[in-house]
Write a structure and sequence with these properties.
The protein has about 80 residues and is mainly alpha-helical. It has one domain.
Length: about 80
């Protein structure tokens, strides 16, 4: 549930940043605002994905035995 709530906030933030970038580009004629907003929204999404992968990795390592080569090979896949 927390991941779904966090994902909703992340997508709302990334979309809002892109909306601000498009506003800066179309209404004010500042193309750098669009590029900056795109970079910021991609960065927010990358941080979210990195945090999710780190949590998945730590959780799965806590559940498997590091001495079992079959379990370790399955985790690596």
């Amino acid at each position: 549930m927390l991941f779904r709530w966090g994902a909703t906030l992340m997508y709302a933030l990334a979309s809002g940043l892109m909306g601000l970038g498009w506003y800066g580009f179309l209404a004010q004629g500042q193309p750098w605002r669009l590029l900056g907003a795109y970079g910021a929204s991609v960065g927010v999404h990358a941080l979210w994905n990195g945090a999710a992968m780190a949590l998945i990795t730590l959780s799965s390592l806590a559940l498997i035995s590091l001495e079992d080569p079959l379990a370790l090979g399955g985790w690596a896949l």
